[in-house]
Amino acid sequence: MSIDIAYFPGCSLHSTASDFAKSIEAIMPALGINLKEIEDWNCCGASSAHKLDEFAAKALPARTIAIAANMKLDKILAPCAACYSGLLHAHHAVTHDPKLKKQIEETIGLTYPSKMQIMSLPEFLLSVAGEKIKSSVKRKLDVNVACYYGCLLTRPRELITYDDSECPQSMERLCQMMGINTVEWWAKTECCGAGFSLMDTDVVYKLTGDILGSARLEKAQVIITSCPLCHSNLDMRQAKIISKSKEEEIPVLYLSELVGYMIGLDPKDLGLSQHFATKKLKQIFI
Amino acid sequence: MSFAMEIKPHQIIRLLQLGQTEKALSSKTIWYCAGCQTCYSRCPQKVDLPKIMDALCQEADEQNLIHKDVRQIEQFHRSFIGSLKRSGLSNEVLLVAEYKLRSRKFFSDVALAPVMFCKGKLKLLPRRVKNMNVIRKIFKRGKV
């Protein structure tokens, strides 16, 4: 029996992170999940809305959540960590502030639901599809994997309780279920610099460089992540970061790409060819 | 991100406590907060510093106190919101093009663009939200 879930891809998964979307949409049918893309969804507002327009920062995600409720769905999968955070913050604000709820309902012309479970990808795969993943493993992978959470998958701890914010383990547990060895490393929840990729790239070179260095220190051969911006900084910006130090490239996979590979899907269907750091990736996965 | 800030976050709080609000509002620091939530998650007093930083950015915008050296950050956010007002989504191709024009950083990352396009990472004709009336209402109600 398949499980229905509201799916909020967000702007990145429709463009610069279309490889992330490709792998998610490839693994879900195999795991018995029916993704129902939220009708006419809009941007969550990302960091720009909460920097400049507090009302929009809450109303934009609220509209998407209200539409999901209208579709008679009570769980939303938001794979992009920024969207996940935006939706969580909006849902918390609207359900705790009746005045804001009224203003938003008047503006969006929809009733806002009192309950909606908003889930990140690691949370979703572990809680809803964990057993199915474990029983569907078809490949062996003999590499050390460093699981990178970044900022918004586990913080703030006031809103997120499915995992610890200092030493999260949800992706490690999924790896263990698939028979993959993971490493512990200090940078697993350090910020990659996020949107500063465009606004001040030097900041990203420094922060992402530190993260890659930390993974290298623990002999990680692959990094997995579950955020399009983290992936972009670690993957697309890696060549420039290691060009001076001449260090070895570390392939960076999305969690869904790793799951897809392990349950036996064709790597061509997982978006791996869209990555930038592909030298080692080709040796290990293709 | 505090390594990139000339006034550290705890000093911003101190400025506010001492009534030196304008110094806080005109700092570069508030625009360099990436909202990583680390401080809020660790603070034993539960001070919501990311929310304070956001509020200071919005107030700085309202009072025209944005530091000249962070104009490119403000421009990025304005370009992003501009895209939302037009289509309800962030059109990454137009966003980057508009940002590069506004910030005059014409040539940085230019080598990445064709590679991204060939890898299917840049969509020239992305979708647009159908109910744009609601999106326009949201922004009319807000401040920007």
Could you describe the 3D structure shown?
The complex is a heterodimer of chains A (286) and B (144). By secondary structure, chain A is α/β, with parallel strands linked by helices. Chain A contains 14 helices and 8 strands. Chain A has helices at 10-13, 18-30, 46-52, 54-70, 81-96, 98-108, 121-136, 170-177, 196-199, 201-217, 228-235, 238-245, 255-262, 279-285, and strands spanning 3-7, 33-37, 75-77, 117-119, 144-148, 181-182, 222-225, 252-254. In chain A, the strands form 2 sheets. Chain A has a 4-stranded parallel beta sheet with strand order 2-1-3-4, sandwiched between helices. In chain A, strands 6-5-7-8 form a 4-stranded parallel beta sheet, sandwiched between helices. The longest helix of chain A is centred in the first third of the chain and has 17 residues, at 54-70. Chain A is globular and about 55 Å long. Chain B is an all-alpha fold and 144 residues long. Helices cover 58% and strands 0% of the residues of chain B. Chain B has 9 helices and no strands. Chain B has helices at 9-17, 21-25, 29-32, 38-42, 49-62, 71-87, 92-103, 112-118, 132-141. In chain B, helix 6 packs antiparallel against helix 7 (92-103). The model of chain B has no long low-confidence stretch (mean pLDDT 89). At the A-B interface, helix 3, helix 4, helix 6, helix 9 and helix 10 of A face helix 4, helix 5, helix 6, helix 7 and helix 8 of B.
Features:
heterodimer, A: 286 residues, alpha/beta, four-stranded parallel beta sheet, 14 helices, B: 144 residues, mainly alpha, 9 helices, globular
